[in-house]
Write a structure and sequence with these properties.
It is built from seven helices and five strands, in the order αββααβββαααα. The chain is an alpha+beta fold. The longest helix is centred in the C-terminal third of the chain and has 18 residues.
Length: 182
């Protein structure tokens, strides 16, 4: 699947809201807080891959495994071999080659959850940072058009730098190739 960015689209907010409401009902007994819109599509004015990222804070990640069949029945595909499954459950819809949404179930007190929210909030509040990130994303999408992993890894270095500048030490994240070699 090629890496492509698109200009900001205000409809991303609507598609988030529609799925948030459906997923909130399905996950009601596991949620510890409201589902959040994260990632680039949650930042007004920021170009992005047109995939809406959703963060569902859950009370207990082990208990949230019980939600997998419910989400799958609702059209979400789980990624059981996610290299970061120790701290999240990861889903997409409608299918891997034509994604419109990602959903992350992360325990409410996990530092990865705070990272996602902090980075989003920094992009929303700092126009210069948002512009730097957008330029980087365009350059990386061109350089790694056919390598989603390389695109994500290169973008991740920027995210880690921004988090450190904001006073948060980024948590480790495994890439698919790292998980296979562990």
């Amino acid at each position: 699947m090629a890496v492509e960015t698109a200009d900001y689209d205000a409809s991303w907010q609507r598609t988030f809201s529609e799925q948030r409401d459906r997923v909130s009902m399905a996950l009601a007994r596991w949620l510890s807080a409201p589902i959040e819109h994260v990632g680039s599509t949650s930042v007004p004015g920021l170009a992005s891959k047109p995939i809406v990222d959703m963060l569902a804070p859950v009370t207990s990640l082990p208990d949230a495994h019980g939600a997998v069949p419910i989400l799958e029945e609702a059209g979400w595909l789980s990624w059981p071999s996610d290299p970061n499954r120790s701290w999240r459950l990861w889903f997409l819809r409608p299918r891997p080659e034509a994604r419109t949404h990602h959903l992350y179930l992360i325990q409410y007190d996990d530092p990865h959850l705070r990272e996602l929210l902090l980075f989003r909030d920094l992009l929303r509040s700092q126009p210069e940072l948002r512009q730097r990130y957008e330029l980087l994303k365009h350059l990386l999408a061109e350089a790694y058009r056919d390598d989603r992993e390389a695109y994500t890894e290169a973008k991740g270095r920027f995210v880690e730098e921004v988090l450190r500048e904001a006073g948060m030490e980024p948590q480790p994240r495994l890439r698919a190739w790292q998980a296979n070699s562990c």
